[in-house]
Design goal:
It is a single chain. The strands form three sheets. Strands 6-7-8-10-9 form a five-stranded mixed β-barrel. Strands 4-3-5 form a three-stranded antiparallel β-sheet. By secondary structure, the chain is mainly beta. The chain has one helix and ten strands. The protein binds zinc ion.
């Protein structure tokens, strides 16, 4: 039962954890995976935790690799670190990314979305001034010293999707 250390935190990725183990196994190979519903006539992808498909409630699913390219759907700038491990990262940005594989499906209000930190080219937190809804991102993998790999995002060179919008400050 591997317990990894990340920024002084103990992260336990249990061999018995079907919800997350495959996600971290894939990340070690620098692949981003999401769950794909196995029900006939559904087959939708989902990024949020949970054993059941949110669209048809099927418990049948498998991991599927995705490109890791997407668009910032929303974000939050963390200015006060609840966890001391992230104290020297503030202010840093958490992004909700809508991945390209299933954007706007199964309906315009929903899509395939996952949450992660927004990092820069040096794998440090991106300057919060640079974040914006509509900006394009790509997955990057933050490797820890003891073999854990964490999917994160960074801004890509692609043109934004629509007009970039930032929360008024
Ligand atoms: Zn389903």
């Amino acid at each position: 039962m591997p317990i990894y250390e990340y920024r002084g935190l103990a992260l336990n990725v249990s061999e018995l954890d079907s919800e997350y183990k495959g996600y971290f196994d894939a990340a070690q190979s620098h692949k981003l995976v999401v769950k794909k519903c196995g029900a006939d006539g559904c087959g939708l992808l989902r990024g949020e935790p949970g054993a059941a498909c949110p669209w048809c409630a099927s418990l049948d699913w498998e991991w599927q690799e995705v490109s890791g390219k997407g668009t910032i759907y929303s974000y939050q700038v963390i200015t006060h670190a609840i966890m001391p491990a992230f104290r020297d990262w503030v202010p840093y940005t958490v992004v909700l990314v809508e991945l390209d594989e299933q954007s706007g499906e199964p309906n315009p209000e929903n899509g395939l979305r996952i949450t992660a930190n927004l990092l820069d080219g040096d794998m440090q937190p991106e300057d919060p001034e640079n974040v914006g809804i509509g900006k394009r991102v790509e997955v990057v993998f933050l490797d820890t010293d003891d073999g854990l790999s964490l999917p994160q995002f960074r801004l890509s060179d692609e043109a934004p999707k629509g007009e970039v919008w930032r929360y008024p400050v």
